[in-house]
């Protein structure tokens, strides 16, 4: 049973690690499917995490924290949208600017407000999203072998945002492939000319896409600072926005594929902390750095077309100019 | 309207006035942030300027030291930009080049002196940086993967690789758990304050070293490369129109690969200044965002070596001034520089049109009015 225990706790941790990646990857899918490159996932997540921690600390209510995180991320998204849609600027540069601004502003404001070197004060459990025990988890865990503990440790016990993340994937799938908005969104990312000639505003579709991306980044950031952790720390996203971007590419801009990629990358992150100083028979001790590099390496390999082919939405990164 | 577009606004407007206005806008928004914190922006900027140019505490020399790093990374971004490539990987390229510094210094610093070591380190840095740049270049040219995404991924791969190299190979040879030992002092380029007495002047402690001259030489070389050589012409042609380049018989893929090698080598040179000359050892995360700063420097300097020197000086001053600022106004974090960096990238890069279009329109209208007046006068 000990082996199952270890496996289940590893899987549970994988899901917790994957959650912020899932939110951010879905954000990336909305944005990129509409034709807007989103390098700024990292920065939005970081600022969202900061805002959520600050608002939750000041109001004592994690739901207000979530709203604060979402609001800031929408602002950053609109900034990116204005530069990309209205000003027809370079979307990569705009995204980078968002990232620089977020890493500078979060530390600057945090330092000025709380003078703890950019950290926000530690949050109490009432100011956080804490784990929920699903009905019957304890009883099943004790009385039914294997499936019981699986339910108790892998499926139950996460905070509400984890469950929301999986709901968002299903919702994203439905919106993209079963609604009129989703069809228009996808068309805008492929053939904006066709969308325009059908009398639909390309700009408005793209603005809505980046706003949705902002909302989802707000969830991702909030999860990091007030669900997974109990305070905002400097650079706490530590590349998760880029990993999410990698997951979008790895999942070929499809919610199902991106979810699988996020779970894989989450699993690798959970594994990373567990394999330190562990001798594996035949191989020896694996460097933990290898695990942190794997998502990036396989994305490079995938993009280079060595395993399958990742094809981006055709109009991604190209500003739309209405033809006269 | 077509008449407007045909007339170009004067050169000083395009490369002087417009970047200046964009900078002013970025600084104005930064001032709002300072106001929000509850401090006086005018006073903050005064302290920063004083801290950046004072010679008493080595302020000016440290400004120049930071500028040395930014010139290298700025040139790296600019060379790639000329070929239409956005190299975000300067950070990783410089980081990996740090490995070359360690390899050369750890094996040879007890046997060779600075005159032999320094050229080897330069070659090593350029080679390792070029390698880390050329792989994304190759993947873009031959396999069609996007350079932006690949270089981002390579930054993170570099981080993992370097932290492994430092912890497992380099730090056990002496030094703390995450840095190398110091290179032997005979093997390192002396800093300006160490050289000063023998040259007949006094200078207070700073990290500035003669590597600045190497950086300026690189500026001259890049200028010659881009505007005075066949390869430079090919690079600019590929950058402005890859299809036309192909019709003109230029092998665009080859140009992309070579450009990324040059770009990576320039970024790698940052390690020559930072890990070899300034710090005198290899430290975890020694690049500390200087590679990304190259993007702001190249945008601000309009991809021209002269503009890059000016922009590097500006950001060097902001960095040095920012470190002074925290002593005078403790509530302002030195990370404030990142805010300014972000805003400069935003206004000079992404929001370029916001300032450019109205300003250029004014000058174009004036030029047309003058031309019409001249025609009328001629009749």
> How much of the residues of chain A is beta strand, in percent?
under 5%
CATH architecture of chain B: Orthogonal Bundle
Give me the secondary-structure category of chain B.
mainly alpha
How many structural domains does the protein architecture of chain A include?
1
**Biggest interface pair, residues each?**
A-B, 50 and 50 residues
Number of helices of chain A: 13
- Cα distance spanning the termini of chain A: 70 Å
Q: Strand share of the residues of chain B?
A: under 5%
**What composes the largest sheet of chain A?**
2 strands, antiparallel
Which fold name is given in CATH as the topology of chain A?
ABC transporter involved in vitamin B12 uptake, BtuC
Based on the structure given, which CATH architecture of chain A is correct? Orthogonal Bundle
Q: CA-to-CA gap between the ends of chain B? A: 25 Å
Average pLDDT of chain B works out at 92
pLDDT under 50 segments of chain B (min length 5)? none
Structure, explained:
- The complex is a heterodimer of chains A (324) and B (379).
- By secondary structure, chain A is an all-alpha fold.
- Chain A starts with a helix and ends in a 21-residue tail after the last helix.
- In chain A, helix 1 runs antiparallel to helix 10, helix 2 runs antiparallel to helix 3 (62-86) and helix 11 packs across helix 12 (255-274).
- Chain A has 13 helices and 2 strands.
- By secondary structure, chain B is mainly alpha-helical.
- Chain B has one domain (39-364): ABC transporter involved in vitamin B12 uptake, BtuC (Orthogonal Bundle).
- Chain B is built from 16 helices and no strands.
- In chain B, helix 3 packs across helix 14, helix 6 (114-143) packs antiparallel against helix 7 and helix 13 crosses helix 14.
- Chains A and B meet through helix 3, helix 4, helix 11 and helix 13 of A and helix 2, helix 7, helix 13, helix 15 and helix 16 of B.
């Amino acid at each position: 049973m000990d082996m199952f225990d270890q496996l289940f706790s590893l899987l549970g941790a994988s899901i917790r690690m994957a959650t912020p990646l899932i939110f951010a990857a879905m954000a990336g899918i909305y944005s990129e499917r509409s034709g807007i490159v989103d390098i700024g996932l990292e920065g939005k997540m970081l600022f969202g995490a900061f805002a959520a921690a600050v608002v939750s600390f000041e109001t004592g209510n994690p739901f207000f924290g979530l709203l604060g995180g979402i609001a800031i991320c929408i602002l950053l998204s609109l900034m990116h949208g204005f530069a990309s849609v209205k000003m027809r600027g370079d979307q990569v540069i705009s995204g980078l600017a968002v990232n620089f601004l977020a890493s500078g502003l979060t530390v600057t404001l945090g330092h000025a407000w709380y003078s703890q070197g950019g950290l926000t004060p530690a949050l109490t459990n009432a100011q956080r999203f804490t784990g929920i025990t699903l009905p019957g988890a304890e009883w099943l865990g004790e009385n039914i072998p294997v499936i019981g503990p699986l339910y108790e440790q892998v499926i139950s016990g996460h905070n509400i945002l984890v469950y929301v993340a999986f709901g968002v994937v299903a919702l994203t799938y439905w919106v993209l492939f079963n609604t009129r908005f989703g069809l228009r969104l996808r068309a805008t990312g492929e053939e904006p000319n066709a969308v325009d000639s059908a009398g639909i505003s390309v700009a408005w579709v793209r603005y809505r896409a980046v706003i949705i991306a902002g909302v989802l980044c707000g969830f991702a950031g909030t999860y990091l600072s007030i669900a997974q952790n109990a305070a905002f720390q400097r650079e706490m996203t530590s590349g998760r926005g880029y990993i999410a971007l990698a997951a979008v590419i790895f999942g070929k801009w499809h919610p199902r594929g991106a979810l699988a990629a996020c779970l894989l990358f989450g699993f690798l992150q959970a594994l990373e902390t567990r394999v330190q100083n562990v001798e594996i028979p035949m191989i020896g001790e694996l460097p933990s750095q290898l695990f942190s590099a794997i998502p990036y390496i396989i994305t490079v390999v995938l993009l280079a077309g060595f395993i399958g082919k990742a094809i981006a939405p055709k109009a991604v990164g190209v500003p739309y100019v209405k033809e006269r | 309207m077509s008449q407007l577009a045909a007339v170009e606004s004067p050169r000083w407007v395009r490369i002087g006035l417009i970047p200046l206005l964009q900078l002013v806008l970025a600084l104005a928004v930064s001032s709002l942030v300072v106001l929000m914190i509850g401090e006086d922006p005018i006073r903050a900027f005064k302290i920063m300027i004083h801290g950046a140019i004072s010679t008493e505490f080595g302020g000016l020399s440290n400004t120049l030291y930071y500028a040395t790093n930014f010139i290298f990374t700025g040139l790296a971004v600019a060379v790639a930009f000329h070929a239409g490539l956005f190299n975000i990987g300067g950070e990783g390229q410089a980081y990996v080049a740090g490995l070359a510094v360690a390899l050369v210094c750890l094996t040879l610093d007890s046997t060779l002196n600075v005159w032999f070591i320094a050229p080897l380190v330069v070659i090593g840095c350029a080679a390792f940086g070029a390698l880390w740049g050329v792989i994304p270049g190759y993947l873009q040219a031959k396999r069609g993967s996007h350079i932006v995404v690949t270089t981002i991924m390579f930054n993170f791969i570099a981080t993992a690789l370097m932290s492994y190299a430092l912890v497992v190979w380099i730090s056990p040879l002496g030094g703390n758990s995450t840095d190398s030992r110091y290179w032997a002092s005979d093997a390192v380029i002396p800093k300006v304050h160490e050289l000063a007495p023998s040259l007949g002047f006094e200078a207070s402690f700073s990290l500035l070293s003669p590597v600045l001259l190497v950086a300026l030489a690189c500026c001259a070389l890049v200028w010659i490369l881009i505007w005075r050589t066949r390869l430079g012409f090919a690079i600019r042609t590929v950058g402005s129109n890859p299809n036309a380049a192909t019709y003109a018989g230029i092998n665009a893929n080859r140009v992309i690969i070579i450009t990324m090698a040059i770009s990576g080598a320039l970024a790698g040179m940052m390690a020559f200044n930072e890990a070899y000359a300034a710090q005198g050892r290899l430290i975890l995360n020694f690049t500390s965002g200087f590679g990304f700063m190259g993007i702001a420097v190249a945008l601000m300097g309009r991809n021209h070596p002269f503009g890059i020197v000016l922009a590097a000086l500006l950001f060097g001053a902001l960095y040095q001034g920012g470190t002074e600022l925290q002593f005078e106004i403790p509530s302002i974090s030195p990370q404030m520089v990142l805010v300014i960096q972000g805003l400069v990238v935003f206004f000079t890069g992404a929001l370029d049109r916001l300032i450019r279009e109205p300003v250029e329109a004014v000058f174009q209208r004036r030029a047309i009015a003058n031309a019409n007046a001249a025609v009328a006068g001629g009749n």
